[in-house]
Automatic annotation (TrEMBL):
PANTHER family: ENDORIBONUCLEASE YBEY, CHLOROPLASTIC (PTHR46986:SF1). This is Endoribonuclease YbeY. Zn(2+) binds at H121, H125, H131. It comes from Aurantiacibacter zhengii. Belongs to the endoribonuclease YbeY family. Keywords: Cytoplasm, Endonuclease, Hydrolase, Metal-binding, Nuclease, Ribosome biogenesis, rRNA processing, Zinc.
Amino acid sequence: MELEIDIEEWPAGDWEALADRVAEAAQQVAPELANPRLVTSLLFTSDAHVHELNREWRQRDKPTNVLSFPMLERGDLVHLDPDEGPPEMLGDIALAHETCAREAEAKGVALEHHAAHLILHGLLHLAGHDHEISDEDAEKMEALEVNALALMGIANPYSETSS
């Protein structure tokens, strides 16, 4: 999977390298993401921009930490031939700096670790995983997140002792 990364209104940091590490970990726990034909757009932006996207595309008039906009159905993704055909847009992810920073501080974790979790969360949504369908689906998605973050040396974000 190729990431197209745009960074606006985020503090200095190696956000591209972090996103690449997250994508590598995601591909290990969700092999459907390892397809070399996939392209994902990742935008590091402001709360104001994410608020605008959330209002326009999800009819929710508030900022949020991460938005994901899938462009492939899960069935199409898992059956996508990795060797034949043009690049396929998996989808777009937008990360809101102020909300991410506030949440990281409240959890007592590094902004980089929280951002990694949210990028991963967005990638799994693009792959068709959804925590809002059922408790079983939520547990499955959470386990994928915990496993991928562990591969990166990042503590379980759902553990009360992770901070």
